[in-house]
Amino acid sequence: MDKPAPKISLKMIAKTITGNDQLMWIALIFLLHQIGNGLVVGGIGSFYIYFEFGYAGGLYSLFTMLGMSVTAFLMVFYPAISRRFPRKRLLGILQNIAIVGYMMMLLAGLFMPSGLMAKFYIITVGYMLANFGQYGFYLVMMISIINTVEYNEHKHGNRAEAIISSLRPFLTKLGSALCVALTSATYLIFKVTDITNGISSAENAAAMDASFDKTGVIGNLLSNVQRSQSIGLLLAMTIVPLAFMLAAFFLYRAKYKLDESEYERICKELEYRRSLINE
User: Whose CA, among 28, 40, 243, 278, lies 20 to 30 Å from 217?
Assistant: First the structure.
């Protein structure tokens, strides 16, 4: 008869996490990545597009749709890509792609005139490249977290798979919460909270009353936006995510030791241990 699954306690969770150095590092790396990756879609990106190009026309929807389209490509082709490139080398490539993307967004935002459609499309292509790098990084992190299961078994004799698997969604939610806090701080620093709250209120009012002049109200709010405020949001959606990604990248290279060869070595040793037990 199968043994009942052991009960999971807070003490067991804490012991598993703190006793697995590779899990602790990858948890920190994943959290940093999640904070930076969520800033554009967490609100800053939408308000920047409104500030620069106006509210009407659905440009933000186009911006996000095109920017996120690259994730579909990675979902399909990541297995083939990962077989060709070792993870740390692949992260370097993804990092460089993201840097190019963020720099395209930043330079276009700083030096091209507001409202110019060519500027919008350059920023959107930049976001596509940045998001390609970010999502590829996310996929590598997912695999890296899962690989700590075998490391835990190798080090402590138990896989603790349930605890390790549940850590990723927890970190995702924590990253989202910290991203919201960072977004709110950005609005306060650049003094756009009244404008962003006003736009949100107008959208809510229009959802309740179809006759509400949402476009006119939001247009009046956007007419008060200063160039420095728009640049502030631009910096928050380019330099800040890139800084978080760079921190995660260098930590991964320095502290995460379970590359393909080390992981394979651990798996072979675990197989050998199991064969001795089954003899």
Answer: 40
Chain segment 204-246, per-residue pLDDT in tens: 999 999 899 999 999 999 999 999 999 999 999 999 999 999 9
Q: pTM to 2 decimals? A: 0.92
Q: How much helix, strand and coil, in percent to the nearest 5, is found in the chain? A: 85, 0, 15
N- to C-terminal Cα separation, the chain: 21
- The CATH class for the domain spanning 21-149+168-278 reads mainly alpha
User: For residues 202 and 55, what is the distance between their CA atoms, to the nearest angstrom?
Assistant: 12
Where in the chain are the domains? 21-149+168-278
Greatest alpha-carbon span in the chain: 79
Q: Which parts of 38-160 fold into alpha helices (H)? A: 45-53, 59-84, 87-111, 117-156
- DSSP class of 2: P
pLDDT in tens, 55-89: 977 899 999 999 999 989 998 999 999 999 999 99
Amino acid at site 94: L
Residues 23, 164: contact at Cβ < 8 Å? yes
Taking a C-beta distance cutoff of 8 angstroms, is the pair 124, 62 a contact?
Answer: yes
Tell me, letter by letter, the H, E, C secondary structure of 97-128.
HHHHHHHHHHHHHHHCCCCCHHHHHHHHHHHH
Q: What is the pLDDT of residue 12?
A: 85
Rounded CA-CA distance 145/258 in Å is 10
CA triple 260-135-144, angle to 5 deg: 25
Locate all alpha helices (DSSP H) within 157-226, ordered by sequence.
161-189, 193-208, 214-222
